[in-house]
Amino acid sequence: MSSIIQLLPDHVANQIAAGEVVQRPASVVKELLENAVDAGATDIKLIIKDAGKALVQVIDNGLGMSVTDARLCFERHATSKIRHAEDLFSLHTKGFRGEALASIAAIAHMEMKTKQDQEELGTHIVIEGSKFVSQDVAVLPKGTSFAVKNLFFNIPARRNFLKSDTVEYRHVIDEFQRVALAHPKIHFTFYHNGSEMFNLPPSTLRQRIVNVFSGKTNEKLVPVQEETEIVSIQGFVSKPEFAKKNRSEQFFFVNDRFIKSGYLHHAVMAAYDGILKDGAQPSYFLYLTVPPNTIDINIHPTKTEIKFDDEHALYAILRASIKHSLGQFNVAPVLDFDRDSNLDTPYHYKDLKGATPTIQVDGNFNPFSEEKPSKQFASYRKPEPTANWESLYVGLKQDTDENGSVTFENEEVTSSLFNDEEVEHAVHKTYQIHKKYIVSSIKSGMVIVDQQRAHQRVLYENFLVNMTVLQASSQQLLFPLNLFFSSTEMELIAELQFSLMNTGFVFEETNKDHIVISGIPVNVTESEVSLVLEQLLSDLQDGIPESSFSQNDTIAKSMAKSLAVKTGTHLTEKEQENLVNGLFACKDPNVSPFQKPTFITMRVEDLDKKFAL
């Protein structure tokens, strides 16, 4: 009987390993950028085509590799950083050049050019699916260049699982931003399809954050700094008024490595407790430095999750340091809510001593004298009695009772509690319950409408009609609105600009970091424009649909969710009737745009059963 268990060939094992390391083009970007940083590069270029599906190239001016190292780096388990198993618990670098390169080379066409500074000639290697095609000597500049082409060319099933170019490009930007923010002293440039997307010169941490996200990032940052024996914290958090709907600007770095931690995120949110609106997310860029032997970074294949030895102390320190910074810069409210800030001591008067007051005494003052006191001393003058006291009682009706005494009353007593006009209006067609549901009677019983979901359905169908018929009406603004966004958000808005114009938005100007809006849809107020666009960007953070109809549908849903009346809003009787009538005039009144029921009905028979004994 033949053996059942067999050893896998190396190229098959590499393809399986690639499933853990390489999930999409952004995974390749992350590995190559981190390798370039570990190589000591001061200038790193990232070049991609078709969102990384066709090409991912990283060029650095780092140490480079010798001929032997250039060949060995593509072997499995090859590394320049690990010698003993204990080294895994004391890591000062990001990746190991060779750990991921073998996996990447197994599923793509790979070309590497590298040269050390002391060598005259470099090495040029070409690999296709783990097979070495050529290895030549070449004249090259100092450093290393990796070019990964045709990702997943030999695994069509994996390639078919890749998302659209828009989605994959956003993931590439996320990885690029994480590495660039962790190393502000390195010059990064990013090119996509021949266009320069980012050019980040060496700078301070604050300036790097501003260069990456542009817009009004600088004015919303509050510095955070704390030094303890357990952890060293520095970085920035945003002011509460600049909070966003999404979590696109939230970054934790531990020993210059980006991580994701729901536990630490909860510590940040606890520091903002009471000063954020519901659903708002603050931006933060926090850099934690801890001893390498107190963390374990190998609990996740992508190394984005870390286990700390003392999480509770870290939580308390982080929360306290952020709360202190918010209070120090007068961002968080103080305990005395009635305090008048105008009474605060100015900084230039803080250390000055107050002058001793002088007292003047009138030695000639006689309290029994009828002469008036000296003019230079203040005196108390008794107020004169009111001369026309009768005017206080003008308008009051005077009656005399049987005993002849005078009685007054403030207002006349009406004949009934409600007049006839009010009684007529007391017959309502609709009723609002707990500012959430609208109850209306029908022939068979009654209908109970969820006001928020119903309004979402009405707005959703109106927006869809406007966008498909291309006859959306706009209201012109007297003063155009200037709205600032990050570079990533500006790209999303640029792709959605045509669809937004069909809803009624008029774009007067579109710049690199802000837009100028001169017209808005008729059912959107000027104060709601920013909220609507923020909600739309939050809903589209996972990518923009490819087809125009899907784009219109997504925009209509997002705007309907933002503009619909919320639970807790009081509606007049006329507004209730218009909402109910508008709902049942829709093509599909039964469900909201998010497939939730908009109303329920109760028949008289059902009510009779409730009262039956």
UniProtKB/TrEMBL annotation:
<dbReference type="GO" id="GO:0030983">
    <property type="term" value="F:mismatched DNA binding"/>
</dbReference>
<dbReference type="GO" id="GO:0016887">
    <property type="term" value="F:ATP hydrolysis activity"/>
</dbReference>
<dbReference type="InterPro" id="IPR036890">
    <property type="entry name" value="HATPase_C_sf"/>
</dbReference>
<dbReference type="Pfam" id="PF08676">
    <property type="entry name" value="MutL_C"/>
</dbReference>
<dbReference type="InterPro" id="IPR020667">
    <property type="entry name" value="DNA_mismatch_repair_MutL"/>
</dbReference>
<keyword id="KW-0234">DNA repair</keyword>
<dbReference type="InterPro" id="IPR013507">
    <property type="entry name" value="DNA_mismatch_S5_2-like"/>
</dbReference>
<dbReference type="InterPro" id="IPR014762">
    <property type="entry name" value="DNA_mismatch_repair_CS"/>
</dbReference>
<feature type="domain" description="MutL C-terminal dimerisation">
    <location>
        <begin position="429"/>
        <end position="571"/>
    </location>
</feature>
<dbReference type="GO" id="GO:0140664">
    <property type="term" value="F:ATP-dependent DNA damage sensor activity"/>
</dbReference>
<dbReference type="GO" id="GO:0005524">
    <property type="term" value="F:ATP binding"/>
</dbReference>
<feature type="domain" description="DNA mismatch repair protein S5">
    <location>
        <begin position="209"/>
        <end position="327"/>
    </location>
</feature>
<protein>
    <recommendedName>
        <fullName>DNA mismatch repair protein MutL</fullName>
    </recommendedName>
</protein>
<dbReference type="InterPro" id="IPR002099">
    <property type="entry name" value="MutL/Mlh/PMS"/>
</dbReference>
<dbReference type="GO" id="GO:0032300">
    <property type="term" value="C:mismatch repair complex"/>
</dbReference>
<keyword id="KW-0227">DNA damage</keyword>
<dbReference type="InterPro" id="IPR038973">
    <property type="entry name" value="MutL/Mlh/Pms-like"/>
</dbReference>
<dbReference type="Pfam" id="PF01119">
    <property type="entry name" value="DNA_mis_repair"/>
</dbReference>
<dbReference type="InterPro" id="IPR042120">
    <property type="entry name" value="MutL_C_dimsub"/>
</dbReference>
<dbReference type="InterPro" id="IPR037198">
    <property type="entry name" value="MutL_C_sf"/>
</dbReference>
<comment type="similarity">
    <text>Belongs to the DNA mismatch repair MutL/HexB family.</text>
</comment>
<comment type="function">
    <text>This protein is involved in the repair of mismatches in DNA. It is required for dam-dependent methyl-directed DNA mismatch repair. May act as a 'molecular matchmaker', a protein that promotes the formation of a stable complex between two or more DNA-binding proteins in an ATP-dependent manner without itself being part of a final effector complex.</text>
</comment>
<dbReference type="InterPro" id="IPR042121">
    <property type="entry name" value="MutL_C_regsub"/>
</dbReference>
<dbReference type="Pfam" id="PF13589">
    <property type="entry name" value="HATPase_c_3"/>
</dbReference>
<dbReference type="InterPro" id="IPR020568">
    <property type="entry name" value="Ribosomal_Su5_D2-typ_SF"/>
</dbReference>
<dbReference type="InterPro" id="IPR014790">
    <property type="entry name" value="MutL_C"/>
</dbReference>
<dbReference type="InterPro" id="IPR014721">
    <property type="entry name" value="Ribsml_uS5_D2-typ_fold_subgr"/>
</dbReference>
<dbReference type="GO" id="GO:0006298">
    <property type="term" value="P:mismatch repair"/>
</dbReference>
